[in-house]
Amino acid sequence: MSGDNATLRWVPLESNPELFTEWSKSLGLDTSQYAFHDIYGLDAELLSMVPQPVQAVLLLFPISEAYEKKRREDDELVKEGESEKDGEIWFKQT
Question: How would residue 53 be classed by pLDDT, with cut points 50, 70 and 90?
Fold first, then answer.
């Protein structure tokens, strides 16, 4: 972005793998190598439906007060964009 007054804008996206893939392609993702797919559950049968290899997982879930409390506690320990574990990065979607 150019200039000091430039504003970073995030486009709200529907939780739809095709939309995520197209949006990511517009940002330069090589969609011949990578794409987004739905994961319907974490049991072995449902995970077997996900194309392999998997490079990352985006989790979308409702936020509860218990979750917010735990998140605030964790936020005290880890700065956004960092993690306690190698290869894991946390960014809050607003």
Answer: very high
